[in-house]
Specification:
CATH superfamily of the largest domain: Type I PLP-dependent aspartate aminotransferase-like (Major domain)
Strand content: 5-15%
Order of helices and strands: EHHEHEHEHEEEEHEEHEHHEH
Shape: globular
Helix content: 25-40%
Strand order of the largest sheet: 2-8-7-6-5-3-4
Number of domains: 2
Number of strands: 12
């Protein structure tokens, strides 16, 4: 039997998304830019999905631009903005950090020990007359810490990587001070290959992909109709069920944390002092290599993570955790558990039992296994 606790990396596709994709693949083969009947059937699927995603995010459908995923959305926002200085944070996803390195002329603000970035620190890093954009993630992929999105001086764009927030917490873009917002479907029971960049009306971006005038001229190329149908269906399910599902998953996360902290000495939750998404916990196991624990759990049938999925196999400690002030050893002793729609109480209890057994075995094998008593 296998147990999946790595939903921040990717989620199982929900039945509503799968059904929508199957229908689009089997029945709607026209190009959505064609004017004949088959093309217009495809166009209706794309526009229906645009409305479904807009309903989830609380914004006008015309502000939704479909992309291939969160990385492309982040890249389009960062690299498509006007030239000038950018303020961001040291805990961003590599899709933002690497785009900033390509762009140049940026400042990274450090978080506090709880993983939250102070809005005042963001504002203090702005260079009047030079800063054109601030990019700050809405929720961190490793800790789940939710960031406050600050009001900025006029003329400065605010981009937020919402990949780990959308579908986990309520997001009403019409009520947030954001100009650009990125997300991707496979983080909330939609398919891989479909993402979104919200572009507030009046915001001008330079495209990074060239060809036709698809997606308001910002993303050339024939739309991935089946994947877009899938992200639309997943968004519609969440619009109807987000409140109840978030509460259910939060209770599971609380059950998991309480049991691990009570039963396993030398454990602590990274980011526990800040608001977090309801499904994510990042737990430090003193005296252990997190990778060894991850492998042990994998062999027992439990999928968890030591950090961002795109950085799996990296030998360096998490840049998020070290930015929060953890030592390299502490960062390397941490694992992320991210829950989702397919998890239940019995799964959580089985995970706790497996973690307890694995930690005891690994600490007994280690010459450095002594840990402080809880």
């Amino acid at each position: 039997m296998s147990f999946y606790f790595d939903n921040n990396a990717s989620t199982p596709v929900g039945p509503e998304a799968l059904q929508a994709m199957e229908r689009a693949l089997a029945e709607v083969y026209g190009n959505p830019s064609s004017i004949h009947a088959q093309g217009q059937r495809a166009r209706r699927i794309v526009e229906t999905a645009r409305e479904q995603v807009a309903a989830l995010l609380g914004c006008p459908p015309k502000t939704i631009v479909f992309t291939s995923g969160g990385t492309e959305s982040d890249n389009l926002a960062i690299l498509g903005a006007p030239p000038g200085h950018v303020v961001s944070t040291a805990i961003e996803h590599p899709a933002v950090l690497e785009a900033l390195r390509v762009r140049g002329n940026y400042t990274l603000v450090q978080p506090g020990p709880n993983g939250a970035v102070e809005p005042g620190a963001i504002l203090a890093a702005i260079r009047p007359g030079e800063t054109v954009m601030v990019s700050i993630m809405h929720a961190n992929n490793e800790t789940g810490v939710v960031q406050e999105l600050p009001e900025l001086p006029p003329g400065i764009l605010l981009h937020s990587d919402g990949v780990q927030a959308a579908g986990k917490i309520p997001v009403r873009l019409s009520e947030l001070p954001v100009d650009l917002y990125s997300l991707t479907g496979h983080k909330f029971a939609g398919p891989k290959g479909a993402g979104v960049l919200y572009v507030r009306e009046g915001v001008e971006l330079h495209p990074r992909q060239f060809g036709g005038r698809h997606e308001r001229g910002l993303r050339a190329g024939t739309e991935n109709v089946p994947a877009i149908a899938g992200i639309g269906a997943a968004a519609e399910w969440l619009t109807q069920n987000l409140s109840a599902e978030s509460a259910r998953v939060a209770a599971l996360r609380g059950r998991l944390e309480a049991a691990i902290l009570a039963r396993i000495p030398g454990t602590s939750v990274n980011g526990a002092g800040a608001p977090r998404t309801p499904n994510t916990t990042n737990i430090q196991f003193a005296g252990l290599e997190g990778e060894a624990l991850l492998i042990s759990l994998d062999l027992a049938g439990f999928a968890v993570s030591s950090g961002a999925a795109c950085s799996s196999g990296a030998v360096t400690p998490s840049h998020v955790l070290t930015a929060m002030g953890l030592s390299k050893e502490q960062a390397k002793s941490s694992l992320r558990f991210s829950l989702g729609r397919t998890n239940n109480e019995s799964d959580v209890d089985a995970l706790v039992d497996a973690v307890e057994r694995a930690v005891a075995r690994l600490r007994n094998l280690s010459p450095f296994h002594a840990v402080p008593s809880s």
